[in-house]
Amino acid sequence: MARTFPWRTQGPSVASTPSSAPRSWREPRRLARLFSQDPDTRLSRTLSYALRHGAVELGLHMGADGFVALQELLALPSLAGVSEGDVRRVVETNEKQRFALRPAPSGGLQIRANQGHSLEVPELELTPLETPESLPPTLAHGTRRRLWDSIRRGGLSRRGRTHIHLAPGLPGDAGVLSGMRPDSEVAVVIDGPQALADGIRFFRAANGVVLTPGDAHGVLPPRYILCALQLRPSRE
C-alpha cells in the first residue's frame, strides 16, 4: 500500500531547492546529464525540445496541429548526422508514445509531439473528457518529494506549458504508459470529478495522458488534491 503524506511540510520549500535556481546555475548539470545518456535518449530529448517548445525559435514551420516536416527538422544543426531511420526507431520504441509520425500530403513524413507543449497548438488532437464517467478512476501527477509542501499549499501549476499533465493511474497499473516521469517520488492524486463539476476542463492526448489547463491562472488548486502517495524509494 502506498504511503499517504499528511498535510504538513515534507521538506524545504521550492524556493530553496536547486530546481528553482537560476537557469545559468543549473545548465552545466543539465548538459552533463544529457551527454551521459544513450544516443536514443538524447535524440528523444532533442526532438521533445524542438517539437514542444523551440519550433518558433528554431525557424520550423509547425502546423496548427503540431506537425512539422521531418526533413525540415533533420536539417537543424542539432540533428546533424541523424537519419529518418533514427527518428523512426525513437518514435516506435518510445514507451511513453511521446511522438507521432504521419505521411505528408506532398510526400515524405511529418512528426509532432503528442503533448507537453509550451507553444500554442490550437488543433492538437485532444479528446474532451466531459463527464465523471469519462475520467480515469485515478488521476495522478508525478513530482519530487521536496516539492510537495509547495504543491499542497499552492496546487499544481502548468509552469509555462499549455497543460498540467496527469497520468491515468499509478505507475505499474495496467494501461498506464505515460503522464508521469519515471523518477517521480510522489504521486499527487487529484479529485477529477469534483474539478470537472467546478468547470475545470480535462482532455485525453493521443498517448493516453490526461491534460488540464487548470483554472484561469493555469493552476489546479489544492482543494482538488485527495492525497499524495510515496512512489520512491519504493511504493508502499
UniProtKB/TrEMBL annotation:
GO biological process: tRNA splicing, via endonucleolytic cleavage and ligation
GO molecular function: tRNA 2'-phosphotransferase activity
Principal EC category: transferase
Residue ranges, annotated region (Disordered): 1-25
SUPFAM superfamilies assigned to the protein according to its UniProt record, in alphabetical order: ADP-ribosylation
Claim: Aminoacyl-tRNA synthetase is one of the keywords in the record: no
Catalytic activity reported: 2'-phospho-[ligated tRNA] + NAD(+) = mature tRNA + ADP-alpha-D-ribose 1'',2''-cyclic phosphate + nicotinamide
Protein name stated in the entry: 2'-phosphotransferase
Species the sequence originates in: Alligator sinensis
Protein's gene: TRPT1
